[in-house]
Specification:
By secondary structure, the protein is α/β, with parallel strands linked by helices. It is built from 13 helices and 9 strands. It is globular, with a radius of gyration of 20 Å.
């Protein structure tokens, strides 16, 4: 699902594209045989007391670090290094295989609870997090838009402290990106970004897992996004600043992704990154053609206008033919069939939309395993 405004300006200092902080990874009961990396040194995380109070304004820093420099939260993919990102993806594949086998003996979340804050409703985000946490032994608590009214009925920093007293981890799907930063700053337990107007890191981790499963690799792949330069695009750009691949965003003029995010990703210099207004040229030789709705939650009043502006950006059979027979089609869902993508494309044999949706759960399980150190 896209952001409220695909061409909003964001302060780049809030969203660093690289971090010098390392994060420990615990393989727990499962060990990878596919990818091998040296684990960074494990350090203890400094907890904030549930009773702590502060009158200071929340910091704009996106990386919630302890005094030892260990990452506590999953807010942006670019907060982690390449080795850690690939380890999380490898762990996702392991736990997925275990669950698909029917084995339910791996319950690392037994006795743990997760608070799920939903300022924005979502079928996939709720079910994938809640089911995944349950399958690994934990209990998830759904908090809908009217349960908290974060920032209105109660300040975000107070919500963070209170929920930290009761839960082992917090997931939040919110509008303003500052809300997720504030939650992470004042929470003493890990916070997972389930989506903000700026980015959607869990979705892109699931997408990366899906690409690896179907193509065999992410590095060097050509991923072409066609549509609005939204939070999905920002997350692809952040991933491209960590893992090298070819990313192209084809969007109408005026609907390009955040300029500072694009420039920072390009400056890292490990991936080929292109922003274009020509979808036909963009999709040539693509490994993946990716789409999203043109008007998302909070943009529905613009739907008719956007349908006019986005003419020529529909992913149809003709565009997929230009991409080539090797190209897979992906969509983060929900899809408006007949608008940004035709029914024929989404139902075609090379569409991997539903394996992609399933992988939300597996990628998120691995993220939570990493953050909880189990």
């Amino acid at each position: 699902m896209a952001a409220i405004s695909g061409h909003s300006t964001f302060r780049s200092h809030k969203f660093p594209l690289a971090s010098t902080a390392s994060s420990s990874f615990s393989g727990g009961a499962l060990r990878s045989s596919r990818i091998s990396f040296a684990s960074p040194t494990s350090v203890r995380r400094n907890h904030i007391s549930c009773q702590a109070s502060s009158a200071t304004s929340p910091s704009s820093s996106s990386v919630n670090l302890t005094e030892k420099g260990e990452l506590k939260d999953f807010l942006h993919i670019s907060d982690f290094d390449k080795a850690t990102v690939l380890k999380i993806l490898d762990r996702a594949a392991e736990v997925k295989a275990l669950l698909k086998s029917g084995d339910r003996s791996f319950v690392p979340f037994k006795g743990k609870t997760m608070a799920m804050i939903f300022a924005k409703p979502s079928m996939r985000t709720r079910v994938s997090f809640e089911t995944g946490f349950f399958l690994l032994g934990g209990h998830a608590i759904y908090l809908g838009p009217d349960d908290i009214q974060m920032g209105k009925r109660e300040e975000t920093r107070d919500v963070a402290r209170v929920l930290s007293c009761y839960n082992d981890i917090i997931m939040a799907r919110v509008f303003a990106h500052q809300d997720i930063l504030d939650l992470a700053k004042f929470s003493s337990v890990p916070v997972v970004n389930g989506l903000t107007d700026y980015n959607h890191p869990c979705q892109i981790m699931a997408d990366a897992l899906t690409i690896i499963e179907h193509i065999g690799h992410l590095e060097g792949a050509k991923v072409v996004y066609v549509g609005d330069g939204n939070n999905i695009v920002h997350s692809w750009l952040l991933l491209a600043s960590v893992v090298p691949f070819h990313f192209v965003c084809a969007c109408p003029k005026g609907f390009e992704p955040d300029k500072e995010t694009v420039e920072k990703a390009q400056q890292v210099g490990i991936s080929k990154i292109e922003i274009t207004n020509d979808p036909k040229e963009a999709v040539k030789d693509a490994d993946v053609v990716y789409s999203d709705v043109w008007a998302s939650m909070g943009q529905k009043e613009e739907a008719a206008y956007r349908r006019q502006v986005f003419q020529g950006f529909q992913v149809d059979e003709a565009l997929m033919k230009i991409a080539g027979p090797q190209a897979y089609f992906m969509h983060c869902l929900p899809a408006e069939r007949g608008v940004e993508v035709t029914d024929g494309v989404i139902e075609a044999p090379n569409s991997i939309v539903f394996p992609q949706a399933e992988n939300r759960m597996h990628a998120q399980n691995a993220i939570m395993l990493h953050l909880l150190g189990v």
